[in-house]
Amino acid sequence: MDSSHLKLNSSKGNSSPFTKHISRQERQKQKSQQQGVPVFRLLLVWGILLLAMGGLAYRLYQLQVVQANRLQRMAKAQQSTSMQPYVPRRSIVDSQGNVLATDRLTYTLFVHPRYFEATKEITNPTDYIARELATILGDVTPEQLKEKFKEKESGIKLATGLNESQAVRIGALRMGGVDLEKQYSRYYPQDEMAADIVGYVDGEHQGQAGLELSQREILEREVETYAIRRTGKGVVLPDSLPDNLLQSNDWQLQLTIDMRLQRAARELLKAQVSQQKAKRGTVLVMDAQDGAILAMVNEPTFNPNEYYKARVEYFKNWAVSDLYEPGSTFKPVIVALAMNEGAVKPKDRLNDSGSIRVGPWTISNASKSGAGLITVTEAIRYSSNVVMVAIARRLKPERYYELLQEVGLDSRTGIDLPGEATNYLKPRQSFMDDPIEQATTSFGQGLSLTPIKLLQLNAMLANGGKLVTPHVVKGLVDARNHLHWQPDHPIKQVVKPEVAHSVVQMMESVVSGDGGTGKAALIPGYRVGGKTGTAQKAGPRGGYLANAKITSFVSVLPVDNPRYVVVAIIDEPKGANAYGGTVAAPVVKSVMEALIAIKGIPPSQAK
User: What are the distances in angstroms from CA 567 to CA 176, 284, 295?
Assistant: First the structure.
């Protein structure tokens, strides 16, 4: 037992060198295997990092070099924007600075019934909102509003053009489902008083009639587009705003119209059209020296603040757009043209037999009687058709036609309002070949012109023979009334001054002479020239309408120093005593009296 025990101990305690060597190699191998795993991972990570850095470097190269210009443009586009500030239309003012048209902030009211909410105090929001809005709007009942609320659940437009006061009251309700939208709209403080001249703009702020249409380029100021910078969050950088962003000239479009006279003419014409139960009427006042229109009114008319309520035909200014046969108011023009040619003199005496034959036709005076041997002045005073035909016969037909063309009877006056009609004169050959055309033209039939043309022709007599351009635009003025721009209006001399003055004196006899047809226009202390006209209305298919006539009166004030011309035309007055001297002349007299007071015209000196 002892020996075996010793052998066992001996084998445990004395290992061989070979055994030790094998054990060491195994331990080293195991250690090498344990250390080899993290090295591989490390190399793999470094490889990935190197690849990423290479990709990043490549990307930076692409961004900083290859795509640099494009990216810079994109960055600028993101940091900059353009803006176009709202610039209101220019205001329109009269000759005294009274505002006729301007832009103002207004509100449109919308309701959204689905968002009406009850509160502790308001158990029925629909009734409450309908009642409060009806009180504020003033032109609708709560019941009507509640019916309106039933149309749809949201986006119901209730009213437009609400003012600031109404908007504040609506906002104070603090009710859900009630919404106000701001916008600028055109406002006409004078309502219908200057509607025929100013016109109106529609819901899109676009001019549709009058000066709002014809002077659109001037009224719609040029709007500049500004480039500005902003941050990444869209905030505009203050230092990038242009210095002149909020600077805009305050120039206004000033007119030649005087609202004091305009208002007087409007009221007088409206009263006469109503009294005569007439179809329509117009009154025009011009400064004959330069063609400036001081008043222009038509009846009936419209309110530009509520243009959508008016009949479409009211938007047309018939004083410039409609043609009519002027009748006897055209006679002084024919006399002036004949005198300018030396075909007749003021004291020449011609026979008024009461009627005259022209080919197969007989032309008579309106009175159906003759005055015998009378002067040219008396022919104007008595409005003799027969003598006018005799005067026309002294002109050669070709020259006669040329004279009519020289005063623009086949063209427009060139007034700065839209829709002017071209005055109508028969074709040359027809006029020269047919003696009846030459005869009827001499007393204002067979040709057609606009009321503004009649005004221009009589201004030619008042100003010494110059054909001036009628106009309502004076120019652009600033707040201090300094004129910065003025349109150019051509002037053409067509009649000798002495001839024109002589004819105006003849016209004075119509108002103040014995037997004159214009006595209703007589103003004590003032020398007034005038001419009446009562013409049959031409039918749409030729000939003349049996029971339709147009009455007119034209005047020059004062005769001793002619300056102003007034025309009144009343279309289709009713009644047996409806003539130029009884219907139109009284209106002209009243307008002249207002003109005298406004302009401070001194009384005329005795002859």
Answer: 58, 5, 10
Backbone angles phi, psi at 78, to 5 degrees: -75, -30
Q: How confident is the model over 311-356, as pLDDT tens digits?
A: 999 999 999 999 999 999 999 999 999 999 999 998 899 999 999 9
Q: Which value, to the nearest 10 degrees, does the dihedral of the CA atoms of residues 423, 424, 425, 427 take?
A: 130
Q: Return the number of other C-beta atoms located less than 10 Å from residue 545's C-beta.
A: 12
Domain ranges for the chain? 104-187, 259-306+317-599
Query: What predicted TM-score, i.e. pTM, was given to this entire model?
Result: 0.80
446 vs 424: CA distance, rounded Å: 9
Strands 178-187, 99-111: pairing is antiparallel
Of 504, 494, 502, the C-alpha closest to 555 is 504
Give the Cα separation of 536 and 497 in Å (integer): 33
User: Which of the residues are catalytic?
Assistant: 328
* pLDDT per position as a tens digit, 140-179: 999 999 999 999 999 999 998 898 899 999 999 888 999 9
CA 519 to CA 513: how far, in whole Å? Answer: 8
Longest CA span, the chain: 192
Which residues, in sequence order, are CB contacts of 339 under 8 Å at separation 6+? Answer: 345, 346, 376, 499, 502, 503
Residue matched to tokens 């302009």: 599
Under CATH, domain 104-187 is a member of which superfamily? Penicillin-binding protein 2a (Domain 2) (3.90.1310.10)
